[in-house]
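Progress against Task 2.4 (sequence-to-structure conversion) is shown through the following example record, which the project officer requested during the mid-term review.
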Amino acid sequence: MTDQPAPAALVADFISLLTVGGKGDHEFTGRPQKGGVGRVFGGQVIAQALQAAQATAPQGMAAHSLHAYFLRGGREGPEIDFRVEADFDGRSFANRRVVASQDGTPILNLTASFQRPEHGLEHDDYAMPDVALPEELTPDWELRRKFMEKAGEVGEAQRALMLRPRPIEMRTVDGLHWMSKEPRPPQAHSWFRTVAPLPDDPALHRAVIAYASDYALLGTSALPHGLSWARGELVGASLDHALWFHRQARADEWLLYATDSPWSGSGRGFNRGRIFDRKGHLVASVAQEGMMRRRSERSG
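Structure tokens generated for the chain above:
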């Protein structure tokens, strides 16, 4: 691994990726990922769509939830266009509806809800899982590198994808699922943060958390079956994605992502996620269903 970008440069490019450009009244454009190949990462489209919605939200309101449906897989290379509709502006809440398109074809619909900050009744019924701290874990990039050194013949595209530098560092508590074929309970835990500090922009931190919330989620439903997308044993795609922001959190500080999958069947897998800060506060909740089929089965 030589000539790797500095962490600050990786994060600067990441911020640029998540910064949508205005084209006109409630119309925005999202940049493609540098060197991206194949299908656009779903978390990128969600984060860019959220940024477009946040750019049109009423002053003083923050996103507290989003619901998205993936319609088609986006292609790396072309820009993504975002059209925002302001469906509702109230005193306490507002709503924005976003359609993401490539070459005039919709690839994602997203609705985001915004709220003006207020005090209210509070309870927090989820305890943060008792897992190893990130300082005690080997970074995922190092595990991927060691795995590829022993992997034998691997396609150049697959090797480049596995070893490419990433602006978000992951440290997996339970071991990377694709490194073992042993079935295990549908639960996983990973710490994540950006590899360099982010600006003090709460909207950007929400966008980064939205981006990262698509990591490791669908793979949780594959754990009981001992199968993996990375090994070419499965085909799949995210169908929908919901995210609730409970508390403001910094995405450049370690956050724990705890995922579980209570059900899979009918060619689909359902997954849930909870995101905690280092103090044990629940900062976000996630839910997603995705298509999940064995490679030998019909995939259309």
